[in-house]
Amino acid sequence: MKVSGLLAVKIPVQEYEYSSRWFKKILDYSRVFGDFFYESEYSTEKLTFVLSPQGGLPVILSQQLYSRVPEYDRPTLASLGVLAFKVRTEDIKKAYLRLKAAKEPFVEKLANTYFEKPCFWVADNDANLYQVIEDNGPEGIYGVIINVDDIHQAIDFFSALGFEEHHSSHGYFADLEPMGFGRSMKARRVILRCEEKHALSQYTGLTEIDLVQVIDNQRRKVFAKYTLYFAASQTHKRPEAFTPQYRVIDNDHLLAVYSPIDYKIAKIRVIEVRILKFKDFVEIDLTKYTNEPLSGRKLSVLLNNVVEKLD
User: Fold this and answer.
1) Phi and psi of 50, rounded to 5°?
2) Which of these ranges, 125-139, 232-246, 247-261, has the smallest mean pLDDT?
């Protein structure tokens, strides 16, 4: 089994119609690939796959139907877990001025990251935070910021999922202020990047895990709101130490196997997408692209010309 970076993220929302419009307007996630319903003993969950024609990680909007939907506060460094998503853009000043002119709420002023790259923050009505960063590569969501209690254990965990240390630093980080990082605070920060290729890597781009450990004596609870999906291939060769059982997803849009991984800080799923289905139009067998990723241009053409027919 080979694990090679982030593949998608699942984000709970209260109102699908509002959230889909927000993702289209703010982050250019304008293509609805498809949706299906998951029935459990206590609720019905509607899962909708939303994509950007520019690339980036697919987003799965999760809306609970016929059950009590939990209320979430805006994520802060007072909690452990996935707290924010990182969004790549090529022209940050253009994106920033467009949102300011539209008077979108919580558009934080332009600042610089620890890499001296310009960034700003946006938030939606469901208390989800997004750090928009100017960088090269497919635009869209490409990483997550995770607050951890033991950064060395976290590095070991994500290293087993194909990530390698790209940057390490210690001190004060101005770009984290919207998550409650004060001037008197110190933290350890490690950026992990996955250089491994998978079938959809030319579309998703290079993915990143941004680990933060605040240095103080505060006890923090786990903020378990999001689910992270990691791309896998050759799952029939899974190592002996990998004990979770694989489950099958087979619907009108994809054929895949996935398995949960035990990690207290975040909901983690390893998934091998084997076939992408565009209903009666075409099927793409992704098992043929284990060595050479599927052309990003080819997939973009399919998404732009076919996905609209799925509505």
Assistant:
1) -120, 135
2) 232-246
Question: Taking the model in full, what pTM does it have?
Answer: 0.90
pLDDT tier at 210 (50, 70, 90 boundaries)? very high
Distance CA 303, CA 240 (A): 38
Q: Which residues contact 239 (CB under 8 A, 6 or more apart)?
A: 1
227-233 and 2-12 as β-strands: parallel, antiparallel, unpaired?
antiparallel
* Antiparallel, parallel or unpaired: β 283-285 and 254-261: unpaired
Question: pLDDT-derived band of residue 211, with 50, 70 and 90 as boundaries?
Answer: very high
Look up tokens 């291939």; give the residue. 233
Residue with tokens 């100017």: 134
Distance CA 224, CA 154 (A): 16
Beta strand spans in 93-215 (E): 111-112, 118-123, 129-134, 140-147, 164-171, 187-194, 207-214
In the chain, the N- to C-terminal Cα span, in Å, equals 35
Q: How far apart are CA 271 and CA 259, in angstroms?
A: 7
Contact 9, 59 (CB under 8 A): yes
Question: Tokens at residue 131, please?
Answer: 């750090």
